[in-house]
Amino acid sequence: MIIVFCFWADYAADALRDWPVQLRAAAATPPSRSPPAVGFVIRCARFRTSLWDGVEGSMEPSEAKTDKAIDIYRDTWVRFLGYANEVGEAFRALVPVSLVWGSYAVATAYVTADAVDKGKKAALAHGENPGKTTRVAAAVVDTFVWQALASVMIPGFTINRVCAGSLYLLGKTTKWPLPVRKWTTTAIGLSTIPFIITPIDRSVDFLLDSSLRKLYNEEEKHK
Predict the structure, then answer these.
(1) Does residue 6 lie in a domain region?
(2) Using an 8 Å Cβ cutoff, are 64 and 56 in contact?
(3) Name one GO cellular component term (predicted).
């Protein structure tokens, strides 16, 4: 499952990076040579292309460069796959445990795909320079460890404890029916997710900067 997801994610990344070029190619096709429905799509493509060119023209060179260098795993909807296990934990009281573990599989697949992608980018960036293998390994390990902690382990544990504590307190302080308490617990868990993302991300950054990343910096100093 993880291997299939990695191949799919790489294909999707290429498609997202190339869509402006494909859009301009469609816009260059004369509508008169196409069926009415296709002609309408082409006119829409021309309109979207004009908007895209206007946006690019209004950008500073650095902004346009940044826009083209979209990271599919960090800057698109794919990033939300990393939160799948938090959602699974929020629904733990309502769904079979197998579905909760399935959500962890999705999040782990995302983490693995992101680590592989960062390794590939590090390999391209360093070319055939000395120390390439070390830098690629550092990129893969750093990404995998960071994502595993910030996207899977810590937030999953946090939502699990929030939901468990909420269900316990609701049972002690209310006389609500069990289904109502479970749905309330799920709502609490889901509403907690947006508030824990940034603190956990910063905490993991601090943890890695204070430990693992010092090893990478020391290796660079000796080269």
Answers:
(1) no
(2) yes
(3) mitochondrion
